[in-house]
Amino acid sequence: MIDHEKSNHVRATFLEAARSARNVLDDGRIAELWDGPSALAEFSLRGLAGHLVRGVTSVEDYLNNPLPSEAPITAAEYYVAAVDTQDIFSPLHAGVRQRGEDMARVGHSQLLQNLGAAIDRLTHRLPEEPVDRVMRVFRDLVTTLDGYLETRIVELVVHMDDLAISIGKIDIKLPEVPLSSAIATLIDVGRHRHGDLAVLRALSRRERDEIQALRIF
Q1: What is the C-alpha separation between 67 and 135, in angstroms, rounded?
Q2: What string of H, E and C letters represents the secondary structure of the chain?
Q3: What is the structure's pLDDT at 216?
Q4: Tens digits of per-residue pLDDT, 40-76?
Q5: How many CA atoms lie within 13 A of 22 on its CB side?
């Protein structure tokens, strides 16, 4: 059974996260340090900013793809399939960094405007999309729209924190509802990768957490 209330909640949470990301990006320190390094290894600050913005614009891009016929996977299954290596020098992660750099080539001011425009368009478009909308996304995977939005909430929340740390803001206040959504999705990824028992031990018995089951990225 399709849960319309849950769908509305996911879409509203994504838009809240996107607007919060715009507020984080709209900081003079980011413009000042634009060409410097970020808090993430091998990621420039501008590349990280571009990657953050792609967490919003990719939704539009994939919505414009032809409708797939395959059955969709969940948000957690998406991460298991899409992020299959932690090697930051792998083609997967190098490609992520390059796409962030490409997005940021317009500069800080224009990137901020592009993000705002994408949020405005999605604010009008998302309520019009069917609750059971499916879409083909990164690495040719197929998800529901709402499942993909759950992954974007994770990306936005995580990279808001990364950007803030990169400019010396260690006490950023992340939006409560998107933060809770991101944590729930990430725990679900851990369950898919390592099993429920491993996640239980990671949460409650650190001496038994031999595989660091909550380390998703």
Answers
A1: 6
A2: CCCHHHHHHHHHHHHHHHHHHHHHHCCHHHHHCCCCECCCCCCEHHHHHHHHHHHHHHHHHHHCCCCCCCCCECHHHHHHHHCCCCCCCCHHHHHHHHHHHHHHCCCHHHHHHHHHHHHHHHHHHHHHCCCCCEEECHHHCEEEHHHHHHHHHHHHHHHHHHHHHHCCCCCCCCCHHHHHHHHHHHHHHHHHHHCHHHHHHHHHCHHHCCCCCCCCC
A3: 84
A4: 999 999 999 999 999 999 999 999 999 999 999 999 9
A5: 19
